[in-house]
């Protein structure tokens, strides 16, 4: 629900003088990028700063430098956010737009080509009004960047097969070169159930060629359907999913969670809210009754249950966290599953987040009912005070001794998993900790996406910020479903994923059974694969790189040592590959495959045209599973440039007012603009018949894209094709929007330009 300010609070803002908080010691960053993830509190009517000291950057900043910013705040319409260069120049990133929306989690593109790279850069945040506080959570400065030129795809045919336990299944792995030159890719399979092995013939191919995948099973394998992820690792890693159905096996089964039982918990949460003032806010009687309901169910099922009071950092009067642990399993390998139990004061909070809490509760009860042999330890958490700033989970993590944090191998979070217009989103979707979650949804053909809307906005952030790997499912909140997402998943394009987000209508009627069922079954799949004997591989290993970063002049090479270790079971052969390399860079390993426990020499070679910048290169060791390490490569003195760009910064469109511009700088584009250049525009406005929209070239030439058509339709979300062949590519391009009639206002949400599609 959107909050409204009182007239008194609005008037008071003119009487309060902002205070400039002393900046903390800047974070030192070698190379041309850096991150400061130290929290800085943002008080009412104050200005605060967070600093990054860039040293050793040999190249000038890019015209398309990027600044990813994460700010936790309950009313971002109060905030002005600026990047301050070492010479004091200010670049405004966010200027009191967004109204009562929660949090800023956005990457800004800034033309810093006139600046000097080295020195102290600051993120300055000014809160211009009363009633809401927050914090700078993290921000990053990247003074340059590029996209690899070579790319490929991978597929399997057929995509599924059935095999009797003890027999084999085969499929063909197909690769194609989709951009640049053909490359060698190494093939691996993950997500195999215990009792199954995979082999490829051949194990690596040139893109454009095929390989035969054979999956062999034993008689003791569990019957069931398993999504097998086939990975092809080259300049990047691409995946495809093969759905393996096993019949006649003798092992324990991964359960299908009863959606009716999950909905019964939701009904109980709804009743609790209606009997306690209509909500389950962390400080309310409704929340404390929810705690009692969850605790009673778990205690009766045999869990060790603890109520953990939040004694610092939580809202005054907030109820406790609920922590439940199932007996058995390796106590040094803890897999944790969590959801916030509190809601907002506007309503009963059934989707947000009764859905995640109920799905988690029923999965825990089924685990107790089945009582399988545990390979690893399982722990559940229901968090307090999430809606007030992730406070309950942050407190829990802060109280863990270092040794206990290390024992938690993955934290899985579930927040809003029943949205009625939902999508299928996974936090950190490409990470190792997301493998099982993604594999299950892939097996249903859902093609999940990264949870960009929810990044740093739910309890997984508390664990990630403490260095604990985290992932999670979500179906979306107030963000709007795109046309492409509606085509892929169904639902209504242009409408919010959850139309009742933070509103009184978030009741039991605000739940999609289909989405909720797919989420809870994915939770069970992930839990069984992570901690029950069925899904635990007998062999495991780790990979590392030393040093973890290096700098190289464009045209030269840099080296590092890749180390491997056997974690459990016997040693195995692992294939090494690197992805995330910039254009013009290649990686080689000597040797390219090793027995775990041995090392390999990594050499990254660059060309004179490799763009200057800092690149996170992922080192992958592929064996019974894929394990990754990151090497940060800094390239100095290289070229670069791009013929496309995007400006995601909001620009308010005044009612019947002057035209407003959103700028986009193209730099280093060597191509002549195309006669079919593409302009992608997303404008939020309730009456598009008021608007004129034009693209302004660097020389001032105007190209009309939209001229007061569409009448009372909502929003412009379109791709326009424009003949720009007479224009020069490089310079400042503008999207110019004007509202020519009264009564409606809006926002330029984002726009992009591609001069060489």
Total E-strand runs:
46
* Percent of residues in helices: 10-25%
Strand content: 35-45%
Secondary structure tally, helices: 10
Largest sheet: 8 strands, mixed
Cα distance spanning the termini: 41 Å
The stretches of 5 or more residues where confidence is low (pLDDT under 50) are 1-23, 534-538
* Spatial strand sequence of the major β-sheet: 21-22-24-23-25-28-26-27
Query: Structural class, judged by helices and strands?
Result: alpha+beta
Q: Look at the structure and give the mean pLDDT.
A: 88
The radius of gyration computed from the alpha-carbon positions, rounded to a whole number of angstroms, is 27 Å
What is the approximate shape? Answer: globular
Topology of this structure?
Layout: H1 7-12, E1 19-20, E2 27-30, E3 33-36, E4 40-42, E5 46-55, E6 65-73, E7 79-84, E8 90-95, E9 104-110, E10 119-127, E11 134-142, E12 151-157, E13 160-164, E14 168-179, E15 184-190, E16 196-201, E17 204-206, E18 210-217, E19 224-233, E20 237-247, H2 259-274, H3 285-301, E21 304-308, E22 321-325, E23 330-340, H4 350-370, E24 376-383, H5 391-398, H6 402-407, E25 408-414, E26 425-427, H7 435-443, E27 449-450, H8 460-464, E28 470-474, H9 483-489, H10 513-531, E29 540-546, E30 549-553, E31 557-568, E32 573-579, E33 586-590, E34 593-595, E35 599-605, E36 613-622, E37 626-636, E38 644-647, E39 651-653, E40 660-666, E41 677-684, E42 691-696, E43 702-707, E44 716-722, E45 731-739, E46 746-754
Parallel strand pairs: 1-5, 2-5, 13-20, 23-24, 23-25, 25-28, 26-27, 30-37
Antiparallel strand pairs: 3-11, 4-11, 5-10, 6-9, 6-11, 7-8, 7-10, 12-14, 14-18, 15-17, 15-19, 16-18, 19-20, 21-22, 22-24, 26-28, 29-31, 31-35, 32-34, 32-36, 33-35, 36-37, 38-46, 39-46, 40-45, 41-44, 41-46, 42-43, 42-45
């Amino acid at each position: 629900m959107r909050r409204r300010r009182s007239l008194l609070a609005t008037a008071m803002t003119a009487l309060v003088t902002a205070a400039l908080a002393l900046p903390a010691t800047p974070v030192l960053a070698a190379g041309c990028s850096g991150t400061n993830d130290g929290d800085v509190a943002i008080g009412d009517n104050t200005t605060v700063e967070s600093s990054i000291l860039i040293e050793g950057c040999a190249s000038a900043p890019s015209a398309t430098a990027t600044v990813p910013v994460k700010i936790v705040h309950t009313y971002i319409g109060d905030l002005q956010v600026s990047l301050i260069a070492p010479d004091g120049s200010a670049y405004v990133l966010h200027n009191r737009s967004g109204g009562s929306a929660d949090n800023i989690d956005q990457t800004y593109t800034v033309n810093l080509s006139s600046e000097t790279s080295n020195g102290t850069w600051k993120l300055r945040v000014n809160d211009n009004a009363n009633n809401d506080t927050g914090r700078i959570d993290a921000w990053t400065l990247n003074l340059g960047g590029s996209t690899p030129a070579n790319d490929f795809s991978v597929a399997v045919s057929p995509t599924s097969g059935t095999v009797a336990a003890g027999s084999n299944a085969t499929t063909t792995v197909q690769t194609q070169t989709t951009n640049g030159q053909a490359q060698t890719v190494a093939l691996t399979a993950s997500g195999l159930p215990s009792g199954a092995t995979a082999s490829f013939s051949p194990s690596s191919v040139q893109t454009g060629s095929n390989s035969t995948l054979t999956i062999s099973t034993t008689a003791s394998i569990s019957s069931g359907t398993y999504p097998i992820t086939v990975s092809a690792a080259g300049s990047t890693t691409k995946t495809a999913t093969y759905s393996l159905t096993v019949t006649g096996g003798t092992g324990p089964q991964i359960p299908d969670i009863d959606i009716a039982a999950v909905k019964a918990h939701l009904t109980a949460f709804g009743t609790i809210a209606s009997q306690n003032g209509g909500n389950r806010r962390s400080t309310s009687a409704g929340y404390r009754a929810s705690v009692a309901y969850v605790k009673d169910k778990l205690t009766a099922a045999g869990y060790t249950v603890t109520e953990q009071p939040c004694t610092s950092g939580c809202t005054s009067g907030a109820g406790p966290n609920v922590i439940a642990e199932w007996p058995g399993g390796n106590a040094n390998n803890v897999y944790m599953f969590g959801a916030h139990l509190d809601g907002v004061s506007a309503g009963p909070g059934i989707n947000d987040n009764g859905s995640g809490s109920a799905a988690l509760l029923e999965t825990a009860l089924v685990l107790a009912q089945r009582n399988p042999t545990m390979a690893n330890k399982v722990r559940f958490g229901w968090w307090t005070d999430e809606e007030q700033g992730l406070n309950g989970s942050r407190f829990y993590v802060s109280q863990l001794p270092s040794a206990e944090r290390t024992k938690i191998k993955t934290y899985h979070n579930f927040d809003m998993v029943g949205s009625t217009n939902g999508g299928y989103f996974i936090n950190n979707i490409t990470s190792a900790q997301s493998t099982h979650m993604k594999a299950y949804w892939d097996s249903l053909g859902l093609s999940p996406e990264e949870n960009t809307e929810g990044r740093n906005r739910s309890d997984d952030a508390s664990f990630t910020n403490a260095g604990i790997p985290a992932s999670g499912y979500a179906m979306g909140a107030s963000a709007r479903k795109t046309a492409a997402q509606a085509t892929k998943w169904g639902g209504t394009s242009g409408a919010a994923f959850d139309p009742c987000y933070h509103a009184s209508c978030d009741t039991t009627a605000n739940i999609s059974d289909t989405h909720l069922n797919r989420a809870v079954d994915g939770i069970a799949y992930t839990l069984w694969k992570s901690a029950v004997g069925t899904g635990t591989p007998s062999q495991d290993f780790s990979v590392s790189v030393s040093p973890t970063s290096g700098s190289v002049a464009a045209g030269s090479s840099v080296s590092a040592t890749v180390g491997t270790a056997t974690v459990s079971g016997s040693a195995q052969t692992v294939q090494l590959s690197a992805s995330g390399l910039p254009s013009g860079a290649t990686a080689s390993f000597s040797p390219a495959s090793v027995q775990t426990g041995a090392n390999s020499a990594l050499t990254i070679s660059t060309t004179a045209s490799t763009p200057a910048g800092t690149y996170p290169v992922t080192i992958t060791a592929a064996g019974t599973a894929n394990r990754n390490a990151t090497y940060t490569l800094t390239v100095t003195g290289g070229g670069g440039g791009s013929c496309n760009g995007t400006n995601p910064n909001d620009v308010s469109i005044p009612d019947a007012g002057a035209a407003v511009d959103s700028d986009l700088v193209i730099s280093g584009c060597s191509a002549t603009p195309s006669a079919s250049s593409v302009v992608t525009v997303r404008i939020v406005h309730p009456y598009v018949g008021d608007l004129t929209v034009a693209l302004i070239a660097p020389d001032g030439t105007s190209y009309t894209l939209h001229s007061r058509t569409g009448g009372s339709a909502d929003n412009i979300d379109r791709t326009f094709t424009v003949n720009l062949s007479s224009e020069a590519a490089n310079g400042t391009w503008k999207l110019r929007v004007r509202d020519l009639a009264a009564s409606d206002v809006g926002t330029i949400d984002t726009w992009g330009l591609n001069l060489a599609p």
